[in-house]
Amino acid sequence: MSIDESLINRLSDPDATARTEADIQSDIKLLLTTGEFDVDSPRLEEQVGDGSRRRIDIAAGATVIEVKKKLTNLDADSGYIDQLSGYVRTRMQQEQTRYNGILTDGRTWWLFETSPSADHFDLRSSFELVSDKRSQALVEWLQAVLATRSNLKPTQHNIETLLGAASPAYDQDSAYLSSLYEQVRHNPMVKLKRQLWARLLRSALGTGFVDDDKLFIDHTLLVVEASAIGHAVMGLNIIDLLNNPQGLLDGYRFRQAGIYNVIEPGFFDWILMSDEGERFLAHTVRRIAMFDWIEIEHDALKILYESVINADVRKGMGEYYTPDWLAEGVTRKTISAPLSQRILDPACGSGTFLFQAIRLITSEAEAAGWDSSTIVEHVQAHVFGLDIHPVSVMLGRVTYLLALGKHLEDRGDLWVPVHLGDSMQWYQPDDHDENIVRIDTEGPDLTTAEHTTLFSLARTLVFPLTSIDDTDTFDQLVSAMTNRAKEYTDKSRSRPKIEPILKRFGITTTHESASTLIDTFNLLCDLNAEGKDSIWGFYVRNQVRPLWLSMPNRRADVLIGNPPWVAYRYMTSDLQKKYKAFAKKYWLWEGGNVAPQQDLVALFTARAVDKYLNDEGVFGFVTPYSVLSRRAYDGFRKGKWGAHLRAHFTELWDLHELKPNDFFPVPAATVFGRRSVKPMADSPEPPHGFPKTKRVYSGKFAKYSWSLLEQQALITEETNVSIGRDTVASSPYNESVVNGATIFPKVLTFIREVEQSNSKLGQRAGMTSFESLPSVHKPWKTIPPLAAALPNEFIFEVHQGSTVLPFRSLKPSRAVLPILNQTLLTEEEIDSGDDQFRRWWKMANSLWEQYKTSQSKLSFRDNLNMHNKLNRQLTPTKHRVFYTTSGNTLAAVRNSNPTQLVEQKLLWIPSGGINEARYLTAVLNAPITTKLVSIYQSDGLMGPRDFTKYVWMLPIPRFSADLKEHQELVAMAEKSETIASKIDFGSYGFQKCRSLVREELDSEGILSKLDNLVDVLLSRSGPDGGVV
């Protein structure tokens, strides 16, 4: 229904002549009745009903709207706000529910709500109707606040508008939950739930996980919303839950219907420990009830998650959801016998791969004439999911049900086999007994079973799995033990007896597991007496799933999914130690300067194949594109994962040339393979390692389905070139290349000269007044520019990546550095030297210590000279070559000023003279060099970027003045320098300047000549750079 434009114009202009509050009130009523709000009749001038004569201007749903002729600001209009607060509080008392308060003059809209913990009346959101062009935005803002719509289709736009982080509903609910959390955060059980939640995510995501209140609140909100959606997609009338909001989180209705392990109390039912918790749940139900979830698309839950957790947070946590079309392609490639194979996604996330696998199975089963009951029974026994992320698991379980669709209408009991668990099994020692599960009750993450803290010494729950063949039995045992432990609340009294419960499960006092279980029960009792027990049953039951699925008779025939992408440098220190130990066990550890680039994705894949895949079973995993070629994955590509485990990779998909390439934050690939073992040391090696070729998918495509992509994309078979530990540089110049110094951060080093004031005092000769340049990266960007005046001998010209063009350099930057007479000063020499510099250095050094990362152990001076990269530049040859470390095209220039320095965005090469320097710049600036080196480069979303020392993988020979082609390259470089020097750049940026140089060289025919000469040069060079 369209809204009259004149109505919006009137509302957006409260200053219009003769406009009264009654006029605005009437227009808002018209807006609510003609807009898409599903409000039958907004109530005007409704009596408050508290015995007074007060009247509410407009009442709609659970919202009070107070209208004023003109709003100014919160302070000036505090009286209006107090008036609205009184109305809202009265309504809350009368109806025992959450209530919104809106204060508006038609143009300005302020949303208020009473905070449950502090009893404040707080502003939650605001909207400004600045013109009629914002009419739809106002409607959507009000729709989210009023929550009166019905039968909305859960599209991405609707979900983001009404529930997402940009909606007023999110602002309200997040603030309300935060207030509830403040009420109960010190409760021992709530603290434990928060700690266990953090341990899971820290184990999965390393330092990318930030344990802050906001993320915990966001996850709580998502689980509550997903729980409501889970009820709705099953056709349950979620409005009925208003009579029992607690049932929203305990899954009672599902268990009544014979569906288990979908919704259960876990980390996030802490809400119910607050007096206002049920009120929050009821309001959430109303929001979710706006949508018609019966016809939901399976990716709607993924949309909900991504609309609440912003992209920066997801990236920091290593969360990269796989698009449906890619999951479909991987699933169809990997699953060859849908009606017989057991399938596991060990990092299932929100269930994208599970959905595709189930739909493939049900399609085949329907074609084979299976009935729904048989299909459901088969699927739950053959398709499994594991994930360590509690919110993802909740979404994955609902997705599992969505995939079964109509077949749920006729079935037996269903246990949804999507489990919260540590697929890596970090906490189990390498030589652990597979019939034992150990759960540390105090550790920071899951990497160790025993972790000493200030308050306890290795308090570890141990559960034997001996004689327990199925998870249902184990669940019953753990539940019975934890329920009995809840009876123990006073440590001064004796613990209850556990022997009768054990006997019920056939475990007598002489049973091999009895003593272990009794010890664990005693610990559960002690934890309960400390207020820390009730979560452990849930936690342990889920943690045992990976062990159960890794038992020989429970392993899968197919592994699929998208393993977690977490770089080694972002892992916690504990996780790094465990990662290194595990990686060495599987012969994946590379170490050295590539250690920071190693990623959990490789170890996770090897570990999953080892633990969960049958011999000759197959796997298909989405990975970063770098897995196909980077040195950090050399051991992974070899497929010899330890003494016995082998992986024979059968096919590689290179996806980095697909357009648009925005489905992951970095380019992606997919690897397929088969597991085998080498049983004895003297046994013949089974096939293993990467194939020599890969399938490259390129071109534009519509992101709808894999079958459509295969029709639209260009698919070619190409050689897969990779860099391994045995790969050596072909050029002898590789040994001469030096990295620029780490002149960082900018605000403490780089400067711009400033003019002196008109003071007659002037400035001492040999001094420079300056202001430091601001940094652009956190936390340094928070430091304002620093001003000082220093002797000129401490100020140096520094070339950066932005000052180097092909065959020409721009004016170098200037930086303050602790160098005097071509010597890097020690701290003692600085302290006893020039007073002005000493004071500057003390200030800069203090800021460095204050803002540097917690991982950095270097002083400011040592960081500047990291790996001696600054000191090496103080006695250079007269002629050097500078070239860029990254970019779309190599740029190199000859430099003949030995006093100028080079920072980390450049590399430099000393040369024996001007001719050798020109020879090198000619080779490096030839377009063919950029093209040839690209096969060795890492690839980002902007294409190959890093040159570093990869260029010397090419067989570039050492310069020889006796060779004609070398002399020709020198002559071409000299000519290019002359051409570049005559170009007027005006005020262009360095990227444009580079383009202008290349365009001019191209128009003069220089670039094509360089390509021809370099092509001949490389074709005549041997593998070590010698001439053949």
TrEMBL record:
UniProt entry tagged with the keyword Transferase: yes
GO-annotated molecular function: nucleic acid binding; site-specific DNA-methyltransferase (adenine-specific) activity
Gene Ontology biological process terms from the UniProt entry: DNA modification; methylation
Record has Transferase as a keyword: yes
Enzyme class: transferase
Domain of life: Bacteria
E.C. designation(s): 2.1.1.72
Reaction it catalyzes: a 2'-deoxyadenosine in DNA + S-adenosyl-L-methionine = an N(6)-methyl-2'-deoxyadenosine in DNA + S-adenosyl-L-homocysteine + H(+)
Keyword terms, alphabetized: Methyltransferase, S-adenosyl-L-methionine, Transferase
Family matches, as SUPFAM superfamilies: S-adenosyl-L-methionine-dependent methyltransferases
Domain Type II methyltransferase M.TaqI-like: 382-638
Pfam families with a match to the protein in the record: Eco57I
Protein's UniProt name: site-specific DNA-methyltransferase (adenine-specific)
Source organism of the structure: Brevibacterium aurantiacum
